[in-house]
Every structure is written in structure tokens, then in C-alpha cells.
Fold this sequence. Notes:
The chain is of the alpha/beta class. It is 24% helix and 28% strand.
Amino acid sequence: MDWMQAMVFERVGAPLAAVELPVPTPTPDQLLVKVHACGVCRTDLHLIDGELQIAHPPRVLGHQIVGVTEPGGRRVGIPWLGWTCGRCRWCRGGQENLCPSARFTGKDIDGGMAQWTVADRRFCLPIPESCEDIQAAPLLCAGLIGARALRMCAEALGPAGTQSNLGLYGFGASAHILIQVARHEGRNVLAFTRRGDADAQRFARQLGAAWAAGSDEPPPEPLDAAIIFAPAGELVPAALQAIRPGGVVVCAGIHMSEIPAFRYELLWHERSLRSVANLTRADGEQFLALAPEVPVRTHVSTYPLERANEALEDLRNGRFTGAAVLVVRA
């Protein structure tokens, strides 16, 4: 039997454990993938902290996976959505991201914080040849969720090239990718960061933000749309207050702290409040085709697999800009 190194979730609140596991054996519906890179996501923190439940630990985390198939050597990406039933009303209606039986990579299915993984062949996405492994990994969740959230803003923002104001609340992995897409479309982007986070504000301006400040500050002009990436419920009324009549606020996180009560006037005048849930394969195919055209360049801090816990704590404490990626060696 062949063995592999893996970083494993064992219980809520505990650091990931470095263990040896058997290399998984794929079923006929799965691909065996040798992992090259795995992005570190705030969702991983929500799982470790118990804000999202892993029903059957232990579990290998990680859902922004780039690797090559064995046999075949085909480079693929494995995203958060790992399996759906294909039969329910949501799957049949083009909303497989809402399938009630869905299984998610690194939560219900072992993920990519390991040297090898298996994945449903239907949910393995092609990676553009021009994207290096560590550049591509953050696109598989941070990029896809941001792109889906941006599409939910389309009506409020108007067609590409329209002079419109898009606010991004929380300037981490998703926002630093999405600002590149939004600027490619000709949007005016305003970035909201943690109060006093001068590094993130400087980073946002470097990527083309017209304005960057703490989320406690009002924007210089009304927003047409706002996307909230930070898992902070108190940003919802703040964003509603910042958008114009007819604007939209999209909550793009999988988990958010409690949203405080707010006055109806903030929602009135046909303002909208929406959420993004997961992604679809179509999202993945469309965005991964678009990324080289922009072109999207991810700002990446890399860590070896065995330093996954360090990467997660650096993410938790905002110690890097952009995204973190685990580099996996055989």
C-alpha cells in the first residue's frame, strides 16, 4: 500500500494534524489527482472553528486544488462543490449550487491538503495553460465566488463600460481577484478594509481602486452595488446605507456573524440584499476561461504543506495581502 502526507481536521478548535494516510483509490466515477497546490480559504477557518460543521471527522481540508490526474497527466482544478445528485429541481434547473444533497470538497469529501486526492470527474475543471499552479489555485474559490457575486450586481451596475461604482467590503483573496475583473469591465471600485489596515488599502489602490478606506468610513459618492466578503454582519446595514436607490448588496461569504437590526429606510427605494451560495460547474468554466483574458494575476504567499496551520493563522490575523497557497511536494 502507498502512503501520503496529509493535514487533517480532527476536532473543532484543534490545529490540523500532520498524518500519513493511504493514497486514496478512485471509484469509476472519480479521478485520482496528484496535488500540486491547494489554496487556503477563510472557509477552512470556519470549519476549524466549528462555524460550519464537518459531520464525519477526521477530514482532509482544502478545496482550491490544482493537480494532475494519474494516469494521464491532465491538469485539473477541484473546487468547493464536489458532488450533486443531478436529479433535484435545483440541479435540473441550472442551480446545482443549491442541491440539498450536495457534497463539498474538504468538508464532506477529503480535500487537497494532502499529496493525493480523488474527485468526481464531473466536477474537475480545466485549468488554463497560461496559469501556473499557485496562480490558479485561488481562482477555484476566491475567484469563482467573487465572479458569481459580481454577476448578481449586473443589473445595478449596468453593461460593461458603464460608469458605475462597485464597493468591495473586505479586501482579501476574493476582492483582490475581483477588482481586476471589475476594472477590466470599466467599473469604478471602492475598497473597504478593516479600520486602520493601511497595507490592505495600499494594496487595493495598487490594483486600481479609486478609493480605499476603513469600513467605518462612508464612501465619497453613493455605490451602485456592494459585495461583502468579510464575515461581519455589521457591514450589511453599512453597505445598504452606502448604496443608491435601486442598488444591490451581495453577501458573498459562506458564514457571517449576526446581522444587527436596521431601519427599513435602508432597504427602501428598491434596494436589494442577496447572498451567494457555493458555485456551479458553469461558473467555473466561464471564469477560468475569462481569467487569462483579463488577465487575472493573483498575489500569493506560499507555504509548504506541513505549514498549513501557520498559513491558516496568518490568514486569520491578516498577516498577508492577497491569497495563501500550500505548495505540495511528492
